[in-house]
Amino acid sequence: MEDDAPVIYGLEFQARALTPQTAETDAIRFLVGTQSLKYDNQLASSASLEGKGQLKFTSGRWSPHHNCTQVATANDTAVRGWDTRSMSQTYCIENAHGQLVRDLDFNPNKQYYLASCGDDCKVKFWDTRNVTEPVKTLEEHSHWVWNVRYNHSHDQLVLTGSSDSRVILSNMVSISSEPFGHLVDDDDLSDQEERRPEEKSQEPPQDSVIATYEEHEDSVYAVDWSSADPWLFASLSYDGRLVINRVPRALKYHILL
Fold it and tell me: Exposed end of the chain (fewer CB within 10 Å): N or C?
């Protein structure tokens, strides 16, 4: 890839799923699931979670925290947390969305923070210690939001994909693990590096939409970040189009510097 220009691939099959090859750290690789896959392919194991009635899950996500013993699931408009050691429910967000919840993702650097998206065109961010209200809500899409993903290294960067054929990259810095950026003590700065007064008084960065990507012509069902390059991400639409993009260079340097 040169500069910020996207790379676009066309697949022969309709597609619904996308994931990075996490074991590969030297090469940029993504695995794509097409409509030709069978649900029972290479089923390793299954388990049941207790709940009232017959819960039909639409999505699930392992928490990278708590020694990977907790998982979040979505059924209908609710989001539930489970402890796999006791197979019991740890929290429940009733009516998390006005319509069906499509996807979930945990903040990799803040153990109690969870993102959800759904058919109400919204993306919501939750603190699972207090699920009365979301800590933040995004309403940038005009149709169902199918996918939400935190950046693994810089959790203020959040990707979403929707049936409106758009991919949106947001900078959710206010609820990130570094809401004020990289903090540096004045004592650690040399005379040449000492900040000017006007720089010290600047307000912290604000949440915003960084970029909207419109290379797709069909519903975007999946988005994800590369496991080899934290600034690179892929998106997949129903017609089999795979698009690979980079975080804008200006934002990358702003985060790093």
Answer: C
